[in-house]
Amino acid sequence: MHATVGDKLVQHGRIVGQHDKVGEIVEVMGKEGNPPYRVRFEDGHEGVCSPGPDAEIRHKEAGRRVR
Description:
Radius of gyration: 11 Å
Number of domains: 1
Order of helices and strands: EEEEEE
Mean pLDDT: 89
Shape: globular
Largest sheet: 6 strands, antiparallel
Strand content: 35-45%
Helix content: under 10%
Strand order of the largest sheet: 4-3-2-1-5-6
Structural class: mainly beta
Oligomer: single chain
């Protein structure tokens, strides 16, 4: 998983009825775009994430998805 500042991190809900969490990557803390990432979520919460298989990156420049 590779990301740059400004990309979106989408954490998919794990339970039926649970909504996805969407946040903007504000800092890439790993080397060469690798996790961990500092993410600011839509509700204003900010945290450090190392996304798992239930997450995807939506790149800002092309709208492209990478899992």
